[in-house]
Amino acid sequence: MQLGSRIRARRRHLSLTLKDVSAGSGLSVPYLSQIERHQANPTVTSLASIARALGVTLTYFVPDDTPHTSVTRRGAGNVLHFQELPYRVESLAGQGGDLNLEPLLICIHPGFTSDPNSHLGEEFVHVLQGHLRLTVGSEHHELGPGDSAHHPSTTPHTWANPGDTDTLLLWVGTPRLL
């Protein structure tokens, strides 16, 4: 992918306008537009300003043909226990550089209901065992083993385990949390 296309893709992924990137980078909207349309080549200084405005490092725009596969063996993921939350979170991915997805194995204890939450990105959840009551905005969904849901994280959402056994979820989201 060419430089201008990578910049446009990142900007659109973040739902930013050229004006937003201009404000964050100090570069003009017409110049940014020319870069995205492959009609101008930015200096390293300009590219660093664009990277900062898009929340990435300069190396994000440098093509790299090196494989970035991250393998985590069973039981080797980081396990996190949150004092304020009655569930267990295990990272299923290593620290894979510029990778954007965050796959987690989450165990939610019976009776737990989360507070409404919203943040940038998107979420995919797949129920491995137990039951999950998922509320996204005004939509309510009852999910059982084998059921999945995919939604924008910007919409307020809650989780609940209405059952009397643990619920085990595969959660994949962006941006990375850990």
UniProtKB/TrEMBL annotation:
Biased composition (Basic and acidic residues): 138-150
Domain of life of the organism encoding this protein: Bacteria
InterPro entries (alphabetical): Cro/C1-type_HTH (IPR001387), Cupin_2 (IPR013096), Lambda_DNA-bd_dom_sf (IPR010982), RmlC-like_jellyroll (IPR014710), RmlC_Cupin_sf (IPR011051), TransReg_Diox_bact_type (IPR050807)
Region (Disordered) location: 138-162
GO cellular component: cytosol
Stated name of the protein: DNA-binding protein
Keywords on record: DNA-binding
HTH cro/C1-type domain residues: 7-61
An MF annotation (GO) of this entry: DNA binding
PANTHER family, A to Z: HTH-TYPE TRANSCRIPTIONAL REGULATOR (PTHR46797), METHYLPHOSPHONATE SYNTHASE (PTHR46797:SF1)
Keyword Amino-acid biosynthesis listed: no
Pfam families in alphabetical order: Cupin_2, HTH_3
